[in-house]
Fold Malonyl CoA-acyl carrier protein transacylase.
Amino acid sequence: MSAKQLEQAAQATKTAFVFPGQGSQKVGMLAELAEQFSGVQETFAEASQAVGFDLWHIAQSGEGLNQTEFTQPVLLTASIALWRVWLELGGVAPKYLAGHSLGEYSALVASGAMSLGDAVKLVHLRGQLMQSAVPAGQGAMAAILGLEDAKVIELCAQVEGSVDAANYNAQGQVVIAGDKDAVEAVMASAKENGGKAIALPVSVPSHCALMKPAAEQFATALEQTAIEMPTIPVIQNVGAEIATDVAQLRQALTAQLYQSVQWTKTMQYLQDQGIQYIAECGPGNVLANLAKRLPNIEKAFPLDTKVRMEDALNAILVAEGKIA
């Protein structure tokens, strides 16, 4: 399907695609689909050639899979492999794309805004810069559940050290990030205020002020990367809005490193635009499960196995009136 055909098809649908971020990786991801569709390993080979190491081996063996600099290109490649399989099977072209954190790069590749090769090189560097910005063991992230967003922000402001609301994932679900001691202090305060707090197993504290030095370095690489306006609109994390030009798109990608992921607002935007079906294009089903909680979303589908892919294809084609 050409870029123009994709753009035209996308306008006549009530479906959006979302792409997951770090944390969705799992050893052996897409192995079953790779046996059925040669495009999966071809996509991994293309991306591996760009970064100079074997992404499929990392995905299947788990060696280095949880190191940020390797996690990010592997996940991006897995998402694009699924996207290509979806199109190959005649899946509906979505009206909008959005990605959670790292997933924003997957959305931009799917939209034609940047090549897979350029994107995997970018996110490999992104992971390296994030990893080096905060020494191992000094940063942390935690999910705060059951409190209003404003309360979480207030608790972050009350503790010593650097800690910020990093991801607004859903109503009553905010992820915080920052100095390890400050994060632990907010976790304790959250529990005292009737919320729950869960430490997240991550190697870097993303989307917080500690990432500003990384963002400054990353901006240079972004400027040197060829980027075009997306064929299918991409809702970006920082403002939960669609960029009007490439400069704004680059700026939002830089700010994304140290500003919050506005996922709650992103999903509200999709609902406001009449989106009824969500497909999660990547390993796992975290974003699909979040979408199922929304009042105007009729169905949300993960796509990471053959059965899930076929279920989503058929259900969306029927719902959209493409087949009886």
